[in-house]
Amino acid sequence: MKRFFLLMLIGGLLNTLAAQEMKPEDTEVWEPEPVKVTPGVFTAPPSDAIVLFDGSDLSNWIRPKYTVGATLESIKTMIENQQKTNFEGTDPEWMVKDGAMIVKPGGGAIETKQKFGSVQLHIEFLCPYDPGKESQGYSNSGVFFMGMYELQVLNSYENRTYSNGQAGAMYKQHPPLVNASRPPGEWQMYDVVFNAPQFNRDGSVKTPASITVFHNGVLVQNHTVLEGPTLYIGKSSYVKHADKLPIVLQDHGNKVRFRNIWLREL
Amino acid sequence: MKRFFLLMLIGGLLNTLAAQEMKPEDTEVWEPEPVKVTPGVFTAPPSDAIVLFDGSDLSNWIRPKYTVGATLESIKTMIENQQKTNFEGTDPEWMVKDGAMIVKPGGGAIETKQKFGSVQLHIEFLCPYDPGKESQGYSNSGVFFMGMYELQVLNSYENRTYSNGQAGAMYKQHPPLVNASRPPGEWQMYDVVFNAPQFNRDGSVKTPASITVFHNGVLVQNHTVLEGPTLYIGKSSYVKHADKLPIVLQDHGNKVRFRNIWLREL
Amino acid sequence: MKRFFLLMLIGGLLNTLAAQEMKPEDTEVWEPEPVKVTPGVFTAPPSDAIVLFDGSDLSNWIRPKYTVGATLESIKTMIENQQKTNFEGTDPEWMVKDGAMIVKPGGGAIETKQKFGSVQLHIEFLCPYDPGKESQGYSNSGVFFMGMYELQVLNSYENRTYSNGQAGAMYKQHPPLVNASRPPGEWQMYDVVFNAPQFNRDGSVKTPASITVFHNGVLVQNHTVLEGPTLYIGKSSYVKHADKLPIVLQDHGNKVRFRNIWLREL
Amino acid sequence: MKRFFLLMLIGGLLNTLAAQEMKPEDTEVWEPEPVKVTPGVFTAPPSDAIVLFDGSDLSNWIRPKYTVGATLESIKTMIENQQKTNFEGTDPEWMVKDGAMIVKPGGGAIETKQKFGSVQLHIEFLCPYDPGKESQGYSNSGVFFMGMYELQVLNSYENRTYSNGQAGAMYKQHPPLVNASRPPGEWQMYDVVFNAPQFNRDGSVKTPASITVFHNGVLVQNHTVLEGPTLYIGKSSYVKHADKLPIVLQDHGNKVRFRNIWLREL
After folding, report:
1. Most buried residue, A27, A143, B220, C124, by most Cβ within 10 Å?
2. How close are the terminal C-alpha atoms of chain B, in Å?
3. How far is the C-alpha of B249 from the C-alpha of D248, rounded, in Å?
4. Which residues of D35-74 are buried (b: 16+ CB within 10 A; e: fewer)?
5. Nearest residue to C262 via CA among C124, C151, C97, C129
6. What's the rounded mean pLDDT across residues B163-192?
7. Under an 8 A CB cutoff, do C185 and A98 touch?
8. Which residues contact B92 (CB under 8 A, 6 or more apart)?
9. Exposure of C180 by Cβ count < 10 A (0-12 exposed, 13-18 middle, 19+ buried)?
10. Counting beta carbons within 10 angstroms of the beta carbon of residue D244, is it exposed (0 to 12), middle (13 to 18) or buried (19 or more)?
């Protein structure tokens, strides 16, 4: 024990000496130089953004052949199919109008042709006013990162549902910190940092997926760590998948609109 | 070993059975209900924000008696003094003009009268055009969370300095992911999620401080974990401090302007 | 005739000589110096604006005792009453919620306590989604300058009505140049320059009222000259009135919302 | 005289009868229906806008062969040349950087390839900070409607010059109503309604040009009627010209920047 304290003492002295000998420039890091990005005005995409929807057409989107899974088993099947089919799809049936894309109820989900891992995403959405609807039935849709991690889209303005199922929730996993919803009929925004999970060779999780979300400029997910893919039924756990997968927008039977969708790969 | 596999098998079967018996509502969480927050329009403060500066006056700020430390030793002294003096200060000498507050070179740093731990912060700043200036000399200031964790403010548009010292850097620790600077003379924005460090009773670190920063809407710090307080000289490490401390804006001798400063406690 | 041409010739020569002798500074005008106004960010009020509604309360508004006239005769009665009663009124019954004021159907019109002549006005409005409603019945309200010159508020997105009765129309007088309506449920903006009419002592019109209107940033009234007060029935003509009168927002039985209302006196 | 009053009386009675017999629908106007225009978000161009500069290149601009005139004589020569040469020009030398076009001092004015008459114009500009410069020498440029009616561009923040020569002035004719300038280095906006003059066959003026200008959202020209083309020297008067002519941006030797330029033909 004495020896330990002696070592501590010596260590402390050395540290102090080291600090005294250090100069300000010793902690300057010059390389690599951060790449220049010209920011957009207001919520316009910055110079290095990939624009997924600018109001004109759905050319960056397809209708996938598979269905987003409800249980872990079906997620596994989906992932297997994804790896086989390479996410082939058909033209989406959603409508484009007034600079927005609109869910076609029954038309199925749509997904990006391009695949992504970790991203900064900006997306605007509008939940149509639909009196009489309630809970999960009121303007329901979702943004699925990598096709399986869902950020819920729902009218949560004066529409109570389960907390981990309302707007801003990581569906069935994490409620939003607060409810920052605007009324149905108004445009809303999500600004998201999604960090893709990383897997070891044996399929175990190296780093779980995490997400930070601002809803209309208000923080609702603060580097939330996900348990696994979003499941409608049951508790989730991770299933190893590819490094990059499409982003999916859900058709949940309501005419939710989206516009000004862009992301930056991280 | 056989016994192990048998247990695995049984466990797997039980899991499967459990999943089969689970219903969608089993994973619904209803309480607590997230509190309602009315978001602001554009970058206006949301309904639960604490407005630190709305363009009119410096009534929420004081000039502290202490100086922000350059070395770990001086940080320790500062923290000791903070705990003694309770952050007393005098009226700040900075100027308010055209809805902005302007650093008074030589007037010293200013800090919030109120103390904060983890926050979502919005702050706008303007680096005045000052040809001839370069590197750290060009429109330098900083936002110090808890008086010691500095998000650098600097003109980094066509002004090279060390990467961990440019705009968007956690000074002397983490360069920004990209350089999203606007030219000097233009207003810029930081949108920040700062998570205060947590300490054990013995002073050791339970959770280090972490920070997410958007610079003009572009992600530049992605849940970056800090090594300790910002130091001008030497390598940092944590020193236990209070749960809440003021936010400090630095006087680095340049007439940097700030406006529209608000935060939400997390 | 010869003499005429001779004079013309001499005049022309003199003009030429005069022009040749003129210096650039001869056409410089230094006084009076235009007053400095600090503009607002986005649609925030500039420094010289009078804010009529900032989202908090209706303290700048009253419920008038009179009713806005439908015919020229009733307008005359209204003007007489105005001059007698000095626009007394009671507290408005409209609701304030989420930073907006909402028409209370049956609660009557509201008007500004302060009186105005020529103004630059900014006002935002939201026509609630109300399927089944049509034509003039769909989210109808109005902005009455000087209590009698109405800029129509209506849902005119995919809702046909008579052209001089749709959103952006000077009601029953001038249709908007184009239909720049957003869908019901979304916030919309009017930016208006209203020039009050001027009367001679004998009550005849010296200068008629004129108006320029931008609807969501799109020009819909281009210095339109008005025929007189807005009438529901019949052709209008001017009736002499005071130089300054209140601005009135109409209750037409629909829960139209307003927010961010400010003006500058011209 | 008696007869006159009798006629007046009869006229009045007839009017009253007419009004009594009129129905609300008598003053409804249904055709033509205003064309639908989808407004832009914030200051983005609406759906019917012609975008002159979106930040990418100068493909809609040329460098004209002629010089903008200083006197009425030279304006006449310019107009003659315009009609001969059809505004031929060469590629502009101005630089495009960070989404803005920058005046190249000595590079000459630039003008739109397309010609316009009456327009709604949105244009953003930035006067670079340039200490030591003063009066007309500080970040001078201009927007010339039809190549000859100049809306002045200048740094007028804490930079006194003659009132009819400052930012927002119709140069050498009409000072702005107020000074709504932002400091040099910040982006500013003009939102303009320009009404082209109309001429009779004999060259006389049928309707003079008029202009309404918002500077950073603040009204600075309220349907101002112009005396004729902008002259550096001498008093102006009208010279008949074509119905449509290019819009010109001036090179006055200062590196003024422009961005987000769009217009709608009226």
Report:
1. B220
2. 49
3. 45
4. eebbbbbeebbbbbbbebbebeebebbbbbebebbebbbb
5. C124
6. 96
7. no
8. B58, B61, B62, B63, B107, B108, B110
9. buried
10. middle
Quick one: three-class SS letters along B23-53? CHHHHCCCCCCCEECCCCCCCCCCCCCEEEE
User: Are the beta carbons of C18 and D152 closer than 8 angstroms?
Assistant: no
Which residue type does B250 have? Answer: Q
A187–C186 C-beta distance less than 8 A: yes
pLDDT computed for residue D15 by the predictor: 53
Q: Under an 8 A CB cutoff, do D37 and C195 touch?
A: no
* Cα–Cα distance for residue pair A130/A136, rounded to 1 Å: 12
Chain C closest-CA separation from residue D182 CA (Å): 7
d(CA D241, CA D84): 12
Partners of A129 on chain C (C-beta within 8 Å) are: 128-129, 184-185
Residue type present at position D187: W
pLDDT at C1: 44
State residue B3's pLDDT score: 57
The stretches in chain D having pLDDT less than 50 are: 1, 11-13
User: How many CB atoms within 10 Å of residue D21?
Assistant: 10
Amino acid of residue D95: M
Neighbouring residues of B166: CB distance < 8 A, sequence distance ≥ 6 = A34, B152, B154, B156, B175, B176, B179, B181
DSSP string for residues in D3-61: HHHHHHHHHHHHHHHHHHH--GGGG---SSPPEE-PPPSTTSPPTTPEEEE-SS--TTE
Of the partner residues C33, C175, C232, the one whose CB lies closest to the CB of residue D163: C33
Q: Which stretch of DSSP H or E encloses residue A81? A: helix A72-85
Q: How many domains does chain D have?
A: 1
Torsion of CA C142, C146, C147, C153, to 10 degrees: 0
Alpha helices in B119-187 (DSSP H): none
pTM comes to: 0.91
Please tell me what DSSP assigns to residue D226: P
Q: D214: closest CA among C151, C48, C193, A42? A: C193
Could you tell me the two tokens for B195?
A: 């998570």
A109 C-beta neighbours (distance < 10 Å), count? 25
Nearest to B162 among A29, A122, A172 (CB): A29
pLDDT (tens digit per residue) in C67-96? 666 788 888 887 877 767 665 688 999 999
Q: What is the pLDDT of residues D120-170, one digit of tens each?
A: 999 999 999 998 999 999 999 999 999 999 999 999 999 999 999 999 999
User: Which burial class, exposed, middle or buried, applies to C56 when counting CB atoms under 10 A from its CB (0-12, 13-18, 19+)?
Assistant: exposed
Are D67 and D248 within 8 A, CB to CB? no
Return phi, psi of residue B17, to 5°: -60, -45
- Domain, as residue range, for A87: 2-265
Q: Which residues of A touch B234 (CB under 8 A)?
A: 18-19, 22, 26-27
pLDDT attached to residue D18: 53
Tokens of B121: 């912060």
Residues written for chain C: 266
ipTM at complex level = 0.91
Tokens coding A229:
């893919």
Residue D24 phi/psi, 5° resolution?
A: -55, -40
The token pair that represents B192 in the structure block? 């920040």
At a CB cut-off of 8 Å and minimum separation 6, what does D68 contact? D78, D109, D144, D147, D148, D248, D250
- Chain A contacts of B72, Cβ < 8 Å? 19
Q: Please choose, from the candidates A50, C231, B248, B107, the residue with its C-alpha nearest in 3D space to the C-alpha of residue D19.
A: C231
Nearest to C34 among D72, D177, D212 (CB): D177
Q: What CATH number corresponds to the domain at position C148?
A: 2.60.120.560
Strands D248-249, D110-112: pairing kind: antiparallel
